[in-house]
Design a protein that fits this description.
Its EC number is 7.-.-.-. This is Energy-coupling factor transporter ATP-binding protein EcfA2. The protein has a six-stranded mixed beta sheet with strand order 6-7-8-3-9-10, sandwiched between helices. It has eleven helices and ten strands. The protein has two domains: about 180 residues, Rossmann fold; about 40 residues, no CATH class. By secondary structure, the chain is an alpha/beta fold. The relative contact order is 0.14. The mean pLDDT is about 95. Helix 3 packs across helix 4, helix 3 runs parallel beside helix 5 and helix 4 crosses helix 5. It binds adenosine-5'-triphosphate (ATP) and magnesium ion.
Length: about 280
C-alpha cells in the first residue's frame, strides 16, 4: 500500500487565539514493506502526523493519497482505511479492558464485522505473531507484566490485519530488555508479515539499530528523510534540533580525528566493530 502526503498542513484550534500550526507543508511517500522511524523533539508534530495516516485527523490543507485514491474524497471508504492502517497509541495497554487477553484481542476484528470463527482465528494468529505465551491467553490482561501487556495491545491491532502498522513510542516505559524485545518483534513482523511499520521514537540508538528509513521532524516540518547512515551524517544539525546521533557516530568521528581510518557513517555497534577491526588490520 502506498501513501502519499502532498503539502499537508494541520492547525489545532483553527481560527481561535490558541491556533497552533502542528504540521507545515509535509510531503512524503511511503512504499510497501518499509520500516520507518519518525524522530523529533517533543511537540515537533510526530503524533499529529501519524494520526493523519489513518484518517483520524483531517488535514487543514493538502492531500493524502492511499493507493492513488484521495482519502478526502466524499465517497472514500474511511472505514477500510482504518482497517488497513492500524494505529497503536502511546501506552496502548491503558486501553485494555476486556476480562481476558483473548477477548481483548478479538475486540478489533469483531468490530470490523467479521464472523465469530474468523475473529477467533485472527486473535490466535495475532497473539502467536507477537510471541504471546499460550498459557496466558485466558488470563486477565491486568495480571501481566508491562512488556506482555504491550504485546497484547499490539496483537489487538494486528488482529485487524493492517497493511501498515503505526506505533507511537512503542517502547515508552519499558526497561531495556523489554525495549529490545519489542523492537526485535517489530523487525520480525515487518519481515515475515510483509507489512510497513512506522514507529515514533525518542531514541536514536533504537531507531538506528532497526529501521531502514528515518524521518526527522522539527517544528511541524520534515528536516531530514533518508537511510540511517545518511541522516546521521547531519549529526551537528540534529544536535541543533535537540536530538543526538547514536553514540557510535560520535565514537567513529573521534577515532577518525585520531587518524584511525574507520567508516564514520557506521550506525550500529556491529558495523562499527567491523570497521574498527578492519582499520586496526585485524581482519
Ligand atoms: N489536542 C491538541 N490541541 C492543541 N494543540 C495540540 C494538541 N495536540 C498537540 N498539540 C500541539 O501540536 C504540536 C505538535 O504536537 P504532537 O503531539 O503532534 O507532537 P509530538 O512530536 O508527538 O510530541 P511528543 O514527543 O511530546 O509526543 C505541539 O505544539 C502540541 O502542543
Ligand atoms: Mg507524540
Amino acid at each position: 500500500m502506498s501513501i502519499i502526503l502532498d503539502k499537508v498542513s494541520y492547525l489545532y484550534g483553527q481560527g481561535t487565539s490558541y491556533e497552533i500550526m502542528a504540521l507545515k507543508d509535509i510531503s512524503l511517500k511511503i512504499d510497501d514493506n518499509e520500516f520507518i522511524g519518525i524522530i523529533g523533539h517533543t511537540g515537533s508534530g510526530k503524533s499529529t502526523l501519524t494520526q493523519h495516516l489513518n484518517g483520524l485527523i483531517k488535514a487543514t490543507s493538502g492531500h493524502i493519497y492511499v493507493d492513488g485514491e484521495d482519502i478526502y474524497d466524499d465517497d472514500y471508504d474511511m472505514k477500510k482505511l482504518r482497517g488497513n492502517v492500524g494505529l497503536v497509541f502511546q501506552y496502548p495497554e491503558h486501553q485494555l479492558f476486556e476480562t481476558t487477553v483473548f477477548d481483548d484481542v478479538c475486540f478489533g476484528p469483531k468490530n470490523q464485522g467479521l464472523d465469530k470463527k474468523t475473529v477467533e482465528l485472527r486473535a490466535f494468529e495475532a497473539l502467536y505473531n507477537v510471541g504471546f505465551p499460550e498459557e496466558l491467553f485466558y488470563s486477565s490482561p491486568f495480571e501481566l507484566s508491562g512488556g506482555q501487556k504491550r504485546r497484547v495491545a499490539i496483537a489487538g491491532v494486528l488482529a485487524m490485519k493492517p497493511k501498515v502498522l503505526i506505533l507511537d513510542e512503542p517502547t515508552a516505559g519499558l526497561d531495556p530488555a523489554g525495549r529490545d524485545e519489542i523492537f526485535d518483534l517489530l523487525k520480525k513482523m515487518q519481515q515475515e508479515l510483509n507489512m510497513t511499520i512506522i514507529l515514533v521514537s525518542h531514541s536514536m540508538e533504537d531507531v538506528a539499530n532497526y529501521v531502514n528509513r528515518i524521518i526527522v521532524m522539527d517544528k511541524g516540518q520534515i528536516m531530514l528523510d533518508g537511510k540511517p547512515r545518511e541522516v546521521f551524517k547531519y549529526y551537528r544539525e540534529l544536535e541543533k534540533m535537540g536530538l543526538a546521533a547514536p553514540q557510535v557516530t560520535y565514537l567513529m568521528h573521534e577515532l577518525r580525528e585520531r587518524n584511525l581510518d574507520v567508516d564514520v557513517d557506521a550506525t550500529t555497534v556491529e558495523e562499527a566493530k567491523i570497521s574498527i577491526l578492519k582499520a586496526l588490520g585485524e581482519i
